[in-house]
Design brief:
Length: about 375
């Protein structure tokens, strides 16, 4: 019965990569794998071994799970598979950023961006920016992805499968002497295509798998969920899981925010700011505030002062993102001089503020550019 429900669930989310008689184990939480193995009369500790093999060790073939008997390996092989989304295209930018395009069986495409960065000598941060939907319904005026019309939610397997597929690709293509440090994904951010909190259940399951110590074992400080402001879901997320949280604020008045982010008409600034104030943060943690800077729209020094007032008494770090241009917007970034003046006002008010330099621009891999290579 349980199997049957899970199969229905898989059909419901439109994952056609698995045949009904071979169900994908990738994307299932521990209790779901336990139920499946119990239905095969296997004890609970076997489920733990299978779970760890898939998530902790990144195995994609039952034959390689040597902690279980050969008989069980072949039984699992008969009923299940561990199926990552298929990489359709890889592009490498001049600054080392790699953009991956995945195409699902239904023809829908989604992208991930791998951003290696030397933080200080000998310390690297390799961030993978992953997608939660194949396009986006929010129609933010500065974002290319928002102009893609055909979209759907990604399944849990498609979301976390991006991390596995990219990790395997990096390991296979590594040419450096220190393969582990230079190819291991260290941070995951939900800042690719889509609005994570409109695919709440699957994103939450993916986050749980990412930060589970027996699972993918990322520190919860290294997994960031970013939202345009789906207010009720911000409360839900804060209650459900502890993770790094980012809000794409992008304006300081309802008038401007509603123009550039129509979602603001549904949940205006006062409701959004109330949700940020209520967000449960452990000591010394901060919310990330993303602020896309648009020349002549939200970049005045009056905006900077309003931003300080809006965020007063909320522990935040602010990322200023000068607009990344793309063919479907008439908006433009401010001059660097204006960005620096804006930053100075915030810093003078003791707000932790950095200007985020765009990475991967030459292959349209920067924030707000994803989907430009959509095969459709
Ligand atoms: N929907 C989610 C995640 C995807 S967008 C969100 O809104 O947070 C990820 C980040 O890219 C957001 O902070 C968004 O404001 C920013 N962004 C979108 N388009 C951009 C562009 N053209 N230039 C710079 N940043 C952009």
């Amino acid at each position: 019965m349980f199997c049957y429900i899970l199969r229905l669930r898989y059909f419901a989310v439109g994952v056609f990569t698995t045949l009904p008689h071979q169900q994908n184990l990738l994307g299932l939480l521990k209790y779901e794998i336990e139920s499946l193995l119990l239905s095969l009369n296997e004890p609970l500790f076997r489920a733990q071994q299978v779970y760890e093999a898939i998530y902790r060790h990144g195995l994609s073939n039952f034959a390689n799970i040597t902690t279980i008997s050969k008989k069980l390996r072949s039984t699992l092989d008969e009923h299940f598979l561990i199926d990552y989304p298929k990489i359709d295209q890889v592009q490498q930018a001049s600054d080392g950023v790699r953009k991956y395009r995945f195409v699902a069986m239904d023809g829908q495409a989604f992208e991930s961006v791998y951003i290696p960065e030397v933080v200080k000598v000998g310390r690297v941060t390799n961030t993978l920016c992953i997608s939660s939907q194949t396009g986006c319904s929010l129609e933010c005026k500065f974002c290319f992805t928002a102009s893609l019309k055909h979209y759907r939610n990604l399944s849990v397997a498609e979301i976390i499968g991006q991390v596995f597929a990219v990790s395997h690709d990096l390991a296979a293509n590594c040419t450096t002497k220190k393969p582990i440090e230079n190819t291991r994904v260290t941070n995951v951010v939900f800042m690719g295509m889509g609005e994570p909190l409109l695919n709440y259940d699957n994103v939450l399951a993916a986050v749980k798998l990412l930060i589970d110590a027996d699972g993918m074992n990322f520190s919860n400080r290294r997994v960031t969920v970013s939202t345009a402001g789906i207010v009720p879901r911000i409360y839900d997320l804060g209650r459900a899981v502890q993770t790094q949280f980012a809000i794409s604020l992008n304006a300081t008045t309802d008038e401007v925010r509603s123009q550039i982010m129509p979602i603001n008409k549904k949940w205006p600034l006062n409701e959004l700011i109330a949700a940020l104030r209520a967000y449960p943060l452990s000591p010394r943690r901060r919310l990330t505030v993303e602020y896309v800077m648009l020349g002549g729209v939200n970049d005045s020094l009056a905006d900077a002062h309003r931003l300080i007032n809006l965020l007063s008494f909320i522990p935040v770090k602010i990322n200023l993102l000068p607009l990344n241009a793309h063919p479907r917007t008439s908006l433009h970034p401010p001059s660097m001089e204006q960005v620096l003046k804006f930053q100075k006002v915030l810093r003078d008010a003791s707000m932790n503020t950095i200007i985020r330099s765009a990475r991967g621009q030459d292959i349209a891999a920067a924030c707000g550019q994803l989907g430009e290579n959509d095969p459709k």
